[in-house]
Design brief:
6 helices, mainly alpha, single chain
Amino acid sequence: MRDAYHEELDSIGDGLVDMARLVGSAIGRATTAILDADLKLAESVIAADEKVDTLQRDLEGRAITLLARQQPVATDLRIVVTSLRMSADLERSGDLAQHVAKLARLRFPESAVPHDLHATILEMGQLAQRLMAKAAEVIITKDVDLALQLEQDDDAMDLLHRALFQHLMDDRWKHGIETAVDVTLLGRYYERFADHAVSVAKRVVYLVTGEHADEMSPQGDAAGA
């Protein structure tokens, strides 16, 4: 019975990794769709979000069943509760990738992104994908130092987001209000996606150490945890 219980705990972790990999792939493909005005790819990202939602519902159901039947305590309880929170972060990340794809579909056959901003949006999309890949690795390895590094990595996304706004506010902006709104939304989607990846990593820190990541640093307390 206890073996089956711990197998179920492990399977919840596996489900989180699957979700992270799916949403990471989704943001990468959505970025390609928005930059290339690729309607077929955008539609595939939109449709694939249902798989993320299904995984989240399944994981939530199994976690609640464990809580009800096994009444876990201490570390096991922390695993279950933290996993529920991580699944919510990942599900929202999938929604954000879907938003990018829906914007690509809305503006088809045109690209929602002006050519002079393609490089910035591409960099934001690639960074978002890398952050989520690192979050998946953190879930697998339970590496606290790596988890804490994600917040530092996220600083690069914040810089890109600010650069995007500076471009929008420039007197030389010539792409109109509609495009400005599109680009503003895109910047927000990528920023929030990155925030959710960081949130997942922080929850792993709490899962492993019982301490909140904001009270730790990669070179400080985490190293001795």
